[in-house]
Amino acid sequence: MRALIDPEVSVKNYARIGWLKVVEYSEPLLNAAKVMVENKIRHVPIVSNKKLIGMLSVKDVIDKLNALNMPDLLKSEVGKLGSGKVIASKPDEPLWLALKVMKEADVGALPIVNEEGEVIGIFTERDVVTQIAPEIEWDKSVKEVGLENPKTVELGTPILDVISLMNEMKIRHVPVVDSSGAVKGMVTALDVIGYALENDRYKKGIRIFEDAVDTIMKQPVFVREDATLNEALNVLANSNYDYVLIVGEDLKLKEILTDRDVLRITADLMEKLHG
To answer: In what residue span(s) does the CBS domain sit (predicted)?
Structure first.
């Protein structure tokens, strides 16, 4: 295994400094959800007077989401729904340490703050997937890293059941399969949130999450089970999604590899190189 990344380099080298989306504590969740869906991002810092006070993730939204509470939920102050646990990094934090903090806290984003506590950037697991992990010559197959036997739902499953599964298992990706187990689509937490924003039938008392999952599933991104990890990372880095499915014969699902998995193995390697 050979890495072209210096674990001691500042995290700001890979973070998005200047470009970032934030929401004020008192803003309605509707605004934050729109920011996530429109920008295809899964983490939004919560600020008050420019100071970081929390984070909102798609998991936070899904955890509170169902057809019955939609109108009230979307009006709620975003600060009351996001995580108040503030985990952040200074711009000059060593890369290996920033990754270690994210892995141990099991978070997918690390706001970058200045000396005044103001958010000036953000470093996410997507940055790891697109900028760091591809620069490593991994001596692993994708099967060694992916999660075996991921939870799935069949075609026709109500969206509400998918939400329940996401909350119960604390996941944000659910493959959709047919009765034979072949992959037919994929649903992410961001897809569910986007569907809720685009479909205002809930305002008329219609339970939109009783619609079938087929309504919102997207074409799956996948690699074959004999792919190398670097091949899978190339697919993952060049897609708009934070997962890649690992399939066998007849598209039968074997495993799933997510941005979070890549974050963990990269954090382990960078810490090892740091010594």
So the answer is: 14-73, 81-140, 146-204, 216-273
The two structure tokens encoding residue 271:
């810490």
Which H/E stretch holds residue 232? helix 229-237
Residue 71 φ then ψ, to 5°: -60, -45
pLDDT, residue 69, reads: 64
Query: Tokens at residue 73, please?
Result: 């939920």
Angle at 164 between CA 160 and CA 168, to 5 degrees: 175
DSSP E strand stretches across the chain: 2-3, 16-17, 23-24, 43-48, 51-57, 109-113, 119-124, 136-137, 147-148, 153-154, 173-177, 183-188, 222-224, 243-247, 253-258
Best CA proximity match to 155, nearest among 182, 175, 176: 176
Count of Cβ atoms closer than 10 Å to residue 239 Cβ: 12
Q: Give whole-number Cα distances, 24 to 42, 78, 88, 110, in Å.
A: 17, 8, 17, 18
- In order of their start, the domains of the chain are 2-136 (3.10.580.10), 139-258 (3.10.580.10)
Listed as own residue / partner, the contacts of 147-151 with beta carbons closer than 8 Å and 24 or more positions apart are 147/255, 147/256, 147/257, 147/258, 147/261, 148/254, 148/255, 149/255, 150/175, 150/253, 150/255, 150/256
Give the DSSP letter of residue 14.
Answer: T
Task: List per-block mean pLDDT (blocks of 10 residues) for the chain, which spans 275 residues.
Answer: 81 88 91 92 92 92 71 80 83 96 95 93 96 92 93 95 92 94 94 84 66 93 95 94 92 95 96 91
pLDDT digits (tens, 9 = 90+) for 220-261: 999 999 999 999 999 999 998 999 999 998 889 999 999 999
